[in-house]
């Protein structure tokens, strides 16, 4: 019979049979057939939607369990929760709790088909049927994959990238092979994920009896001078001197859309501590707003201090934080007046640092 599309639910426990669209009397062959059809349908190169990605992951987990006799038997008895977390056995212990889905969906696909390329997998299946039944369907050409360098600014705003590739064309059997330049446009949406694949069907090499394969462009984010990307968040490393780390400062950060953020740092900062600025990250691919800007502080220590500087730093740390004596207060005022003197002070040029 036909295989129903996999169903998915974010709350209820999974029924692996329902995920594959088979009943509990399904044989090993039924389970393999169901996974084969669904995996080829929802592979990221065939359907890059978020729903397809979720289904692709869930059918991979379902096949991983139902293709293993021990896991399948445990699931049949205890369900998904019992399989993963275990259930009380009535004697103070637990039974089940033997499974965690740790493999990637693509690894399951590759293990099943011998390749992570769905077009190559279809060719293998097609070849097998042709050997059995002598089908006259044309062969499918090989997929060609190219990297697509995209800047962080282009991913932030979205971009239309003009790309070209050259394919070989043989118009008749035994005829000359020509080179044909092809121009395509890749619409990169705001917030596009690194590694996303854009598939152009029938754009590969062409010859009689062979259907042109797909051409795939894979997003490769170009390294940025200021920011790094972490999912939907942007990461900025702020290098602070010891004075700014202890006494505070204001960071001036130019964003990807050319605004300047003034971020006050008022607390003492430890090395590798973080400050999060909400909503100043990358646009989310689903249009639900933006991620965050994560500021990671790096403290730059001085290479050396003179004996006098060391004594002054030490004295500053031992100055009473609360209720200094009148003599201590007077001494500190005199010191600061001397340090900040308009013509003779040693902090001239460092105001506000």
Folded structure, characterized:
The protein has 353 residues and is of the alpha/beta class. Helices cover 33% and strands 25% of the residues. It has helices spanning 16-20, 28-42, 50-66, 69-85, 105-113, 118-133, 152-157, 242-247, 307-318, 326-339; strands spanning 87-88, 94-95, 139-140, 144-150, 159-170, 177-188, 197-200, 210-211, 215-221, 227-230, 233-241, 249-254, 260-265, 274-277, 293-300. A four-stranded mixed β-sheet has the order 10-11-15-14. A hairpin with a 5-residue loop joins β12 and β13 (260-265). The model is unreliable at 1-11 and 131-136 (pLDDT under 50).
The geometry reads as flat
Question: Looking across the biggest beta sheet, what order are the strands in?
Answer: 10-11-15-14
How far do the termini sit from each other? 75 Å
- Determine the fraction of residues in helical runs and give it as a percent range: 25-40%
| Number of alpha- plus pi-helical segments | 10
The main sheet comes to:
4 strands, mixed
Mean pLDDT: 85
How many distinct beta strands? 15
- Stretches where pLDDT is under 50 for at least 5 consecutive residues are 1-11, 131-136
Q: Determine the structural class based on helices, strands and strand pairing.
A: alpha/beta
* Share of β-strand residues: 15-25%
Radius of gyration: 31 Å
Q: What is the succession of H and E elements?
A: HHHHEEHHEEHEEEEEEEHEEEEHH
């Amino acid at each position: 019979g036909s295989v129903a599309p996999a169903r998915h639910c974010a709350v209820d426990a999974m029924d692996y049979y329902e995920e594959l669209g088979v009943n509990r009397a399904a044989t090993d062959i039924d389970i393999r057939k169901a996974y084969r059809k669904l995996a080829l349908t929802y592979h990221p190169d065939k359907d890059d939607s978020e729903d397809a990605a979720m289904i692709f992951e869930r059918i991979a987990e379902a096949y991983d369990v139902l293709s293993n006799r021990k896991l399948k038997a445990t699931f049949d008895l205890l369900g998904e929760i019992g399989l993963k977390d275990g259930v009380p056995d009535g004697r103070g212990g637990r039974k089940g709790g033997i499974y965690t889905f740790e493999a990637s969906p693509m690894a399951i696909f590759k293990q099943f088909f011998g390749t992570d390329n769905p077009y190559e997998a279809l060719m293998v299946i097609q070849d097998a049927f042709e050997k059995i039944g002598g089908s006259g369907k044309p062969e499918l050409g090989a997929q060609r994959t190219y990297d697509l360098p995209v800047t962080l600014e282009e991913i932030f705003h979205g971009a239309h990238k003009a790309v070209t590739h050259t394919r070989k064309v043989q118009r008749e059997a035994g005829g000359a092979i020509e080179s044909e330049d092809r121009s395509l446009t890749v619409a990169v949406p705001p917030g596009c994920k690194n590694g996303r694949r854009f598939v152009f069907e029938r754009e590969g090499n062409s010859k009689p009896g062979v259907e042109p394969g797909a051409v795939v462009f894979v997003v490769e984010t170009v390294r940025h001078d200021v920011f790094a990307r972490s999912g939907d968040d942007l990461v900025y490393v702020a290098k602070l001197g010891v004075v700014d780390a202890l006494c505070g400062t204001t960071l001036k950060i130019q964003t990807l859309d050319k605004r300047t953020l003034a971020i006050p740092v008022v607390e003492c900062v430890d090395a590798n501590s973080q400050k999060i600025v909400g909503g100043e990250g990358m646009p989310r691919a689903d249009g639900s707003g933006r991620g965050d800007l994560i500021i990671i502080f790096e403290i730059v220590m001085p290479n050396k201090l003179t004996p006098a500087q060391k004594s002054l730093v030490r004295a500053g740390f031992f100055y009473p934080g609360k209720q200094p004596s009148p003599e201590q207060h007077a001494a500190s005022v005199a010191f600061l007046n001397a340090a900040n003197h308009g013509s003779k002070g040693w902090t001239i040029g460092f105001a506000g640092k």
